[in-house]
Amino acid sequence: MAGRLEGKVAIITGGGVGIGASIAKGFLAEGAKILVSGRRKEKLEEFAAGFPEDSLAIFAGDITKIEDAEAMVEAAVARFGKLDVLVNNAGIDPAGTVTDIPVQQWLDIINTNINGAFYMTRFAIPKMIESGGGSIINVASLAGVRAIPAMPAYSTTKAGLQGFTNAVALDYGSKGIRINMISPGATATDMLKNSMQGLAKSQGTDIYGALGLLTQFTPLGRACEPDEIAPAAIFFASDESSYITGQNLLIDGGATVVDPCGAATSSLGKAWGEE
User: Where are the domains of the chain?
Assistant: First the structure.
């Protein structure tokens, strides 16, 4: 069913690579006009090559800077006339436990993953209200509901997005604003692949071998591909989800249904309690 986003204008932060790029391509295929933002202009230009200029704008900027966030929203409206959808996708994930992560790194993660979403949402909502309503999609993570070793800052920000989503849903539903979350599990983005290099080396395998080890106890037993996230974003951006707000959709291959002890037992060919 093509054209599900026909006539809609969207901003996608961190949209030049990974999940953001997949969402951007999906939105374009469904008829949306989009502004894609990111800090690396060359990545944005590389992504934009081959797409029609009348449907795609790029903006090189930093969502942790409130003036850049405001400028992104203004640029989208100036280019396409309105704003209907915001995808808060940009994020960073440096590792480090609470006793060894540098304080500035902790602050950088908070500033990007939480404050960036706040800034963008703050400036997007008035434009959406002018257009008669809109949809905000926060890209969170399975790490927001399940702990990941040595990643307290990342987990804290992704869990924090749930509270932020709930509050905005409550405060602006009467204005026609919907806001929802997508929480991917292990997804084969460049960001995750980089994080898996140490595991791959220690186990004498490649990146996909490491991703296989990472997901071996999940029901689907594999990592997600970025293009498998885009359909959920399209759904939340479209009028098909017109009565859905404040929700968190886990796209995790079933990871959240697994008890790690039971999964370990099953992986050894034994049923729970079997002699």
Answer: 9-187+225-256, 188-223
Give, in order, the Cα–Cα distances in Å from 238 to each of 111, 116, 218, 235, 259.
29, 24, 30, 5, 35
Exposed/middle/buried for residue 1 (C-beta within 10 Å: 0-12, 13-18, 19+):
exposed
pLDDT of 91: 94
Instruction: Please tell me the pTM assigned to this model.
Output: 0.93
Catalytic residue, chosen from 154, 172, 208, 243, is: 154
The 10 Å Cβ neighbour count of residue 243 is 6
pLDDT along the chain (275 residues), means of 10: 90 94 97 96 92 94 98 98 98 92 96 98 98 98 90 95 98 98 91 82 88 88 94 98 98 90 66 54
Q: Encoding tokens for residue 13?
A: 């932060």
Rounded Cα distance, 113 and 109, in Å: 6
- State yes or no: is 154 an active-site residue: yes
- Tell me if the domain spanning 9-187+225-256 has CATH number 3.50.50.60: no
